[in-house]
Amino acid sequence: MFVGIETTNILVLGSGDNLHQQVLASFPLCDVTEEDLTQNPQFCKLLATLTQHVDRSGLTVPLKADLERAEQKLQSQKRQWLRSESLHRGLQEMIQEFYVRKHNSTVPPDQNMFYETMERCLRVTRCAKQLDPSSTTSQDQPSVLGLTPQQVLQLLPSEKNVQRMKQALPRQLERRLKEKCLSLVSYYQPEWENESEGLKTNKLSHLSTLLDKDKKRTELLKETCRENTVLLQRQTQLYLSELIKCIQLLQTLILDHRLKIQTDLDGKKLDYFEGKCELVLQKIKTEMVEIQLDTYSLDTISAHRKIREKLESELTACKAEKQALEMKLSSFEILGKAFEALADEYCRLRQEIDMKNWALKELTKYNEK
C-alpha cells in the first residue's frame, strides 16, 4: 500500500528528466547534480517522496508551522519592545534638546518645569526598575545601598507637577514623533522633501505599505540571488568536470602525437647539433690559423713545424723506450725479493766503482800538475 502511494506521489511530480529537475528545484541547498540522480534512481525516488513532507529549506511541515508561530510571537514582542524603546529614546532626545536650548537662550518657566519633571520621573522610574527583582527568577536579589523601589519612588515630583506633565506630554510627544516621521518620509523619498506638510502626512499613511512592498521585493531578490548562486555552483561544477575531461583528452592526444614524432624530432636535433659542432670546430681552426698568420711569418711557422715534428718523433721514441723499460722492470719484479737484494747490491757496487773512478781521475789530474 505504501509503495502504491509513493508511486502516485512520484507520478504527480513528473518522470524522467522533468522529475530530476523538480527534485533539484525542491532541494536547492542539497549538493546533488542531475547526473547523481540518474545514477541513483532509488535515491531520486526518496527525494521525490520527501518533497511531500519537507519544504525547500529542509524543514518538515509541522516544524515549519511551529517555526512560523514562534516567529510571529517573536515579532509581536519585538514590536512591543521597539514601541517602548522608541518612546523612551524620544523622551531622552527631547530632554537633551531642551538643555541645549536652555544653554543657548532663555526658556519659559512652564517649559522648564515640564522638562525637569519629565527627566526626574524617567530617572526615578529607571532606578526603581533596576531595584525591582526580576519576575523570571525566584532568587532574592541583593538590594543596592539598602534601597527599595518604594523608597526610590518617594523621590518623584509632586503629584500636581506630574499631572501637568502628563497632560502636556502627549501633545509634545506627538509633535516630536510627527517630525521624525516626516524626516523618515524625506529620507525614503528625497524628492518629497519640498512638498507641503499635508501631502507628506498623506504619504506617511502609505509609507508602511511601500516599505512592505520593498521588503517583499528585497526578499524575492534575495531568494532569486540564492537560486542563481546554487545554479551557478552547479553550472560551475559541470563546467569544471567537462573542462577536466577536455584537458585529459588533450593530454592523451599530446602524448600520442609526441611519441610518434619524437624519434624524427630527436634525429633532426642530432643532425642539427652535429652540423653546429662541425661549424664551430671549423671556425676554431680558422681562428687558430689567423692567429698564427698574424703572430708568425711563413718561415717561422715552417721552422716551428719542423721543430714540432722532431719533438714529436723524440717523444714517440721516449715513450717506446719507457714502455720497453717498464716491460723489463716487470719481468725483473717476477723474480721476487731475492733479485731485489741482488739489485741493491749491484747498485751499491756501481756507486763504489763510480766513486773510485772519480777519485782515480782526480788523483791523475793532481799528479799531472
From TrEMBL:
One GO term of the biological process aspect: centrosome cycle
Record key words, sorted: Coiled coil
Coiled coil regions in record: 301-328
One Pfam family matching this protein: HAUS4
GO cellular component labels: HAUS complex
Entries under InterPro entries matching the protein: HAUS4, HAUS4_met
Superkingdom: Eukaryota
GO molecular function terms noted in the UniProt entry: microtubule minus-end binding
Protein name per its UniProtKB record: HAUS augmin-like complex, subunit 4
Species of the source: Poecilia mexicana
Species lineage: Eukaryota, Metazoa, Chordata, Craniata, Vertebrata
